[in-house]
Design goal:
single chain; 308 residues; Farnesyl Diphosphate Synthase; 17 helices; 77% helix; globular
Length: 308
């Protein structure tokens, strides 16, 4: 048989194989896409990252992470973010239509699940460290002050641009770090402060990137954010500068986990530059918030362990 005939047969076989693979892979890809979308719009994904962010706070403080405490942060995160999504549901109509479709008509269910999650978080904290209870109320207290006019003639924090990002960053930096710090045998104040700063900067950067995603809806609703006020290029410069303040911070972290911290800083530069323009919302969720999951997996694989 001539060589050309063999080559034609091989070519036809490859074409048929590719078509069959594409047909068989399509349902799997669709299923995976639906699962990822559900995790994102339902607040389960961001709650998982609350778990892993607390996990890394333990690591930076030199303590063995506690699954129970990380689980408490998971529950508190789920409650807060689920309620926030209900509040912002109208904005999601233009920014994230798939999340709007998921939330619409499920308000009662989401309120019930959020309330239950917080009750369980309170019970677990009471069983573990009762004096830590005030810490898990920090996000609620911050939200109250954020949306309330405290003094006559003074605008609400909510009406001041960028204050939302600062309040969110401070709240979650305190929760994730302090819940870990109370389990230290010999807590060192400067170490705790440095970890709080790291978590604050990373969270601040992440919230601004979500404002980049929401810029269209924010402009339509007259909401002033760093992105709508400064524009994309200047906002990117601010975020790169903020991330750069974490480079001197590396000196203070234990050298055994310094590579983890360095990886987070370098990864910060990468995703700031990539997400400086609006991208797919799911991509933003899984590559920005997902950094805490990825670095936790690396830690468990090469360094450490966790405790119940």
């Amino acid at each position: 048989m001539p060589l050309s005939v063999y080559l034609n047969l091989i070519s036809e076989y490859r074409s048929v194989s590719k078509e069959r693979f594409a047909i068989s892979a399509e349902p799997v890809c669709n299923a995976i896409g639906k699962v990822l979308s559900f995790l994102s719009v339902s607040s389960i994904w961001v709650s998982c990252l609350g778990f892993f962010k607390t996990f890394i706070a333990y690591v930076f403080l030199g303590a063995n992470p506690s699954n129970l405490v990380c689980g408490v942060v998971f529950l508190v995160t789920f409650c807060i973010y689920s309620l926030d999504k209900i509040v912002d549901i109208d904005k999601d109509r233009s920014n994230i239509p798939q999340r709007y479709s998921f939330l619409y008509g499920r308000k009662t269910l989401i309120y019930s699940c959020s309330f239950l999650a917080y009750i369980v978080a309170i019970i677990l904290t009471q069983l573990d460290k009762p004096f830590a209870l005030p810490i898990i109320f920090i996000p609620f207290i911050a939200n109250t002050f954020y949306g309330t006019k405290l003094f006559r003639g003074v605008p609400r924090l909510k009406d001041i641009p960028v204050m939302k990002n600062i309040v969110v960053a401070i709240s979650w930096a305190l929760v994730t770090t302090l819940l870990a710090a109370i389990h230290l045998a010999n807590p060192v104040a400067i170490a705790i402060i440095m970890v709080i700063y790291f978590m604050l900067i990373k969270t601040f950067i992440d919230t601004i990137l979500y404002d980049v995603r929401d810029a269209k809806g924010d402009r339509e609703n007259g909401i002033k954010t760093m992105v709508t006020l400064l524009g994309g290029d200047r906002t990117t410069l601010v975020l790169l500068a903020a991330n750069s303040t974490l480079i001197p911070w590396l000196v203070f972290v234990d050298e055994t986990v310094r590579p983890l911290a360095l990886a987070l800083v370098l990864y910060g530069y990468a995703y700031i530059l990539y997400f400086r323009t609006n991208r797919n919302p799911l991509t933003l969720d899984f590559f920005v918030e997902g950094q805490w999951l990825m670095i936790s997996v690396v830690y468990l694989a090469f360094w450490g362990r966790c405790v119940l």
